[in-house]
Amino acid sequence: MKHIVIYVHGKGGSAEEAEHYRALFLGAEVVGFDYRAQTPWEAKEEFPAFFRVQKARCERLSLIANSIGAFFSLSSLSQEQVDEAYLISPVVDMNQLIENMMQWAGVSEQELAEKQEIPTQFGETLSMQYLRYVREHPVSWQVPTRILYGEHDNLTSMQTISAFAGKTGAALTVMPGGEHWFHTEAQMQFLDRWLQTRPEAQV
C-alpha cells in the first residue's frame, strides 16, 4: 500500500524541513509542500488542489503540519484529501489569536475596521479582512489527528488547544516546558519520540 506523507511548514520554514521526517516514516514517500498561500482564502485555493494530486497517487495520505501551516491545512482540507494528521504547535483558533494580537498592539476592533490594516511592532500586520474571514469560516475538522503542543506556547493557550482537541477528538500530547517553536535538541527528541509512539511505528 503506497503511503505518502505531506509536510506543511510554518512561518519562516521551508519544504526542505520534510527531510527530518523521512527516517520517522520508513517506507513512505515524504513530500515537503512548498506552498505560496499567505492567507486562509489563498490556502483554500492552493491546498486542496495539491493534496488531490498527491492523494491520487497513494492509498493512504498523512499530513504533518506546523503552526500557521497547520491552520491553513485545517482551514482548507478535509478527510477527502487526508487520512490522518499530525499537527505540531498548530494555530487552531485564529480569531482568538488575532484578538490577542490586537490587545498586544493596543488596537481596538473599531480602529482596525477604520484602517483595515495596521502594522505592529512585533512584525505582524493586523488585517480586518483576515479577521472577518476567520470569523465567517470557522474550522471544521474530522480527520483523525494527533497534536503536539508545548506547555509554554505563546500563540495558543492550553485552554484553546484542549478545547479544540476535545471538539475534534484529537489526541493531545503536551511537552512540559515546551515552546511554540520546536527547535532545540531536547524539543526535537521529544517530537521524534511522539511520532515514534504512533501505533504503526511500533508494529
Mean pLDDT across all residues, rounded?
97
> How many H/I helices?
8
| Adjacency order of strands in the biggest sheet | 2-1-3-4-7-8
The helicity comes to 25-40%
Distance between the amino and carboxyl termini? 16 Å
Number of DSSP strand runs = 8
- The SSE string, one letter per element, is EHEHEHEHHEEHEHEH
- Which topology of the largest domain does CATH recognise? Rossmann fold
Main sheet summary = 6 strands, parallel
Q: Based on CA inertia axes, which overall geometry fits?
A: globular
pLDDT below 50 for ≥5 consecutive residues: which ranges? none
Radius of gyration: 17 Å
Structural class by secondary-structure content: alpha/beta
Strand content: 15-25%
CATH architecture field of the largest domain: 3-Layer(aba) Sandwich
Top-tier CATH class of the largest domain: Alpha Beta
Count of spatially separate domains: 2
> What is the CATH superfamily classification of the largest domain?
Alpha/Beta hydrolase fold, catalytic domain
Looking at this protein, list some descriptive labels.
203 residues, two-stranded antiparallel ribbon, six-stranded parallel beta sheet, single chain
Q: How are the SSEs ordered, and which strands pair?
A:
Blueprint (H helix, E strand, L loop, with lengths): L2 E6 L10 H4 L6 E4 L7 H16 L4 E7 H10 L7 E5 L5 H12 L3 H7 L1 E3 L5 E3 H9 L8 E6 L7 H11 L2 E5 L9 H12 L7
Parallel strand pairs: 1-2, 1-3, 3-4, 4-7, 7-8
Antiparallel strand pairs: 5-6
Helix pairs in contact: 2-3
